[in-house]
User: What shape does this take?
Amino acid sequence: MDVNTIAWLILLLPLASAAVILLGTKKSAGISALISTGSVIATLVLSFLLLAQPDTAAAKPLQWLSLGDFEVTIGLKLDSLAQGMMIIVTGIGTLVHVFSLGYMHDDAGKARFFAGLSQFMFSMTGIVLADNFAMMFIFWELVGVSSYILIGHWYDKDSAADAAKKAFLVNRIGDFGFMIGILLVWVLTGSIYFDEIAKAIGGVQNANLLNAAVLLVFCGAVGKSAQLPLHVWLPDAMEGPTPVSALIHAATMVAAGVYMLARVSFLVGAAEMAADTIAIIGGATALLAALMATQQNDIKRVLAYSTLSQLGYMIMAQGLHDGSDAGMFHLYTHAWFKALLFLGSGAVIFACHHEQDIWKMGGLRQKMPITFWTFLIGTAALIAVPGTSGFWSKEAILEAAWHDHNYLVWGLGIAVAFLTPFYMTRLFVVAFLGKPRTKDADHAHEVSPIMWVPLAILAVMAVISAYITGPLEAKGHVAFHMSLTAILSLAGLVVGVLAGWKLYAGCDRDPVNIKLFANKFYLDELYLGIVRLFQDFVGMTFDAVDRYLIEPITVRLPALAAMSSGYVLRLLQVGNLQAYGFLFGLGAVVLIWLIVF
Amino acid sequence: MTFLFYIFAALAIVGGIGVVLNRNPVSSAFAMIVSFLGLAALYIQLDAYLVGTLQILVYAGAIMVLFLFIIMLLDIKSEEGRQFGVFSTAGAVVVAGGMLLIVAKVLKNFEAGEKALTPLKGAAAETTDVSAIGELLFTTYWFPVQVIGMLLLVATVGVVVLSKRELR
Amino acid sequence: MDTGLTLNHFLAVSGILFAIGLAGVLIRRNIIVIFMCLELMLSAANLTLVAFSRFNTGANGAPDYHGQVLLFFIITVAAAEVAVGLAIIVALFRARETTDVTQIASMKN
Assistant: This one.
């Protein structure tokens, strides 16, 4: 197969699968699931084929929109960045699909769920392969929609429907900035194609405008990758089925923002101030999310906040000089172990009859040995135990911050390195060790092979992915120097784990109670207040304008005019046919007279 | 020829006046037929034999018969009381007079109208207007002919519907 | 042979007939007569068409037959129109028992 066929097949197979399921096999859930899983496995194979292509490969573009001189094509950019990302997306996608076969086995909306997954795979593939901003934006929105559909899968549950709505709306806020950013970049460089922008970027004189453009483009990443201040949707998105959380809200979709920034790293590099802002927002998100994670009781929410925190790392890296590769490296390793953790939590939730509160679990070590060990490996990777993949990528980011002399950002990163081991140890100790605290936990048993095999594969990848950086080629490498950073992060690891162990081992209740963290710094409440205040104000203004300005002028005045003129004109309606005929004839004669003479 | 023109023109105009002035609708209808006969004669004077024939067949024949039929059906008596209202007569005089004035003013300045009527000569005299119009109808105007046919069908159906239903 | 007749003669007759018809429409109260007067106006217009067709001779001296074709269509449409119009009048008469337009004044005010 030539590169054209491979690339277009990768993009279109999931779409075809979604279409077939929704239009044809919706009634038979089993077939639908197999179609969807088959399509994603096929794309995984194709992605490996794509990996063999040279860095400069590109597929023949399709003409999509033409407005005068301005043309938008659906083109596929197949450089090593896209190739590597495709492996992550399809690889994790495959494992999640397989896992879902077990997890969603008895779900009433199974066919719809798999159609949603396929649609998501299509959208995500579009983002990864896009060679221009317009196409990326289209698929960006499609990802938002698929995410909405999947979060709201259990739409009869109010919290799920609300979470889906919240995710969509918050994403739209970011996307609006993204759109303006794209337009601004187009104005500045005259192109929406990444290659052409990269060439034209040096010629841009107006640094302020460029900074603004990059920050607006970054807005899209803020929304999609759930950075401060638009992070609020991600924890709520955990209302969706757990495989969705693993695929979308841990490994791929939220990584889209990071991927997009890496894709336009030349833009970020050109705008100094914007880059600094990006790094600081990333660092701040990492720290705040880690603090919030320390006080959550829902197993998926802890993982959600840790995802936020890790995404903060990646975004932070995108804002650093030469940090883009480290960020992508972390994205790559994080995708595997975070998907592992989420699927592991899914297995736990499944085994405990959909119980998500870690304080109602406990003692799962004996009940679910495979899940226990794989979860342990995932945790080790997340808290960066030396040797695991997470360790290498996190070191790379912190070193990049250090070498950039960006000490504020570096300090934030180090602080997170202390917090991550702490809250993960807390989660692990409470959920898996000790004694079962409820009947559900007591009756838990190991999940079926179709669910634990993906866990095992992901566990292997969580350890070794850093060493097989083939997909990323030069983008990540295993390197270690004894430095201040390394010492501090290792110290963080030890201190965090010990503190977590000391505090939580053998506890039945949370001994620490920090309301500020448990309530997520009251940001949700703050937003709600702002929105409410704003809405009330706007509502009152519009109401007043409508009542006292628009209604009298556009409604009452015409009505009055029509009514009064009606009264006057009624007098002319004598009801005599010949009177009308006379008026008509007179009008005709006068008109002819005026026109002819 | 000129003599005949004036006779037939007078016939048409007098017939027209008769339509307006006759008290009895039946008389009006007969005056109308007279007027149409005069018009048909004028058409023939203009070498439009087919159209003149049609005028007699369709107008004087079919349409006026229909009028008479309806007048009889409804059993309309001649109008009683004052025939013409003051206002309506005054209005009619103003409008019709204005119309005549306009026509007169236009014709006075219409130089192309001074063109004399000369008999057709040569090839033009040999082709009959029937064949010429027929050829046009069945070639250039074939589609309109179909449409007209459709229109007649629709009118037929419409008339049936209108006469069947009781109007309230 | 010069007949002494010009286009204006015919147009004048047409104009007079049209004015008579118009006056009839405005004066008469019987709706059927009004309808007849309308037909008279239509015929007046037809005369104009024939006259122009005859005087607008082509290269070979033949009349412009397109105008007469139009006349053909007008006569056909007029036939249909009369049929429908009379049907309406009949229906109206059934409902109101009158053909006097001054009696039919339900649109007053």
In short: Residues 65-96 of chain C form the longest helix (32 residues). Chain C touches chain B through 78 residues (CB under 8 Å).
